[in-house]
Amino acid sequence: MFSKSCEYAIKAMIFVAQKSDESNRIGIKEIAKGTDAPEHFMAKIMQDLSRRRLIHSVKGPNGGFYMDKSDLKNSIANIVKAIDGDVIYTDCVLGLKVCSEKNPCPVHNEYKEIKKNIIKMIEKNSIGDFKDKLDSARYFLKNNK
Amino acid sequence: MFSKSCEYAIKAMIFVAQKSDESNRIGIKEIAKGTDAPEHFMAKIMQDLSRRRLIHSVKGPNGGFYMDKSDLKNSIANIVKAIDGDVIYTDCVLGLKVCSEKNPCPVHNEYKEIKKNIIKMIEKNSIGDFKDKLDSARYFLKNNK
DNA sequence: TAAAATTATGTTTTCAAAATCTTGTGAATA
DNA sequence: TATTCACAAGATTTTGAAAACATAATTTTA
Ligand code: FES
Ligand code: FES
Fold first, then answer.
1. Per-residue confidence at A135, pLDDT binned at 50, 70, 90?
2. How far does A91 lie from chain B, in Å, by closest CA?
3. Which CA distances in Å does A18 have to A78, A107, B68?
């Protein structure tokens, strides 16, 4: 559904949202550990997110990543679009070039509703909402060992 | 959502269902053309489907692939399971090792419902149903040019 | 023997991951 | 105050593996 990069990106965003604030940044190593992601690969993803201004970063000693109030308002959809583009919005489940009413694949009508729900899922919840969820300690970003 | 192989497999099954019967087989070339798939890649997929008895094949002159009555009863889910395994049934949308109620990712509850619908979509419709849809000529296996 | 699937093997492309090099920043210090 | 140094992100390149696609040889059978 999402690319590996995108999965890591979402987890990283939620992780940073929970663990950091304006004056308390968090480094790439911790982010990688906290999300079960390979460090170098995660570093690259964080660059993308930062370049696209979905997250703030500070270089140098005591530097790291953090999210401010407005960052917390971003939806999962914004992350997905930044990393994977709009494939989720335009893809046909059977791989036709475009998904459309004019040239629908046999599964189109069934899939249409599912797609709607997927989009709702990623658009209605903001990073901030997920931060709260994680705080409640009933949700996880990695498997318990 | 599905692998490329799986997309091709589903299209091929629907195509053969529509175009063939017991005494009227259809060759790999036609299947590839009719589904916009690379011929040799599709050949391999057809082998898989045939080995797993989701479709019948006959070698030699006038040979080819065809589906009998019982083949038509297969659901899309059977194809998906044959090609992609059960990832659709077990995967976590954020890539956790396992999707479970005990160790849910932040999106688990939202995704749970979507997953249910996806499974319903692939289980409730049989290949035969899609054959009828295609016959109605309002659905397509490839893009109109 | 010719037509067709089957099998085996090879190549290319894409994606995930790792490594390395560059740039910017804060703090110590002379 | 200017210099330097270490720390941390940013950017680029390389490697690895898997998926997608292609070629060729083999078997089966009308
Ligand atoms: S055309 Fe296939 S999902 Fe819309
Ligand atoms: S744990 Fe992530 S979808 Fe169920």
1. confident
2. 10
3. 18, 40, 57
